[in-house]
Amino acid sequence: xxxxDSRGAPSRVYPATIRHTKIVLAAxxxxxxxxxxxxxxxxxxxxxxxxxxxxxxxxxxxQFNEIYASLTDPQSQLLVETAIQSGLRGGGSPSCGPxxxxxxxxx
Length: 107
Hints:
Low-confidence stretches: 99-103
Number of domains: 2
Strand content: under 5%
Shape: elongated
Mean pLDDT: 79
Number of strands: 2
Order of helices and strands: EEHHH
Radius of gyration: 23 Å
């Protein structure tokens, strides 16, 4: 799907972004239609590109042992062990917050 910015130059908009934006816009127009603020729902009948499903790579026990053995400090080993045992996804660990080795004040 080709998209263009306000200057007419090609822009990179991914299908997942378009789909998410359409879902939000459709929710807004559904509310407006239900509240009789508009007579027509402009999102109905608009099709978006298919968003391909991501293939997740599952670490095998042998791969985990190799990764674990290559880590030198106990903190990294604990972090990897916790991630693998809790089922934490690859991009999920940064959202857990920073990992610090010093306790907070008042703790």
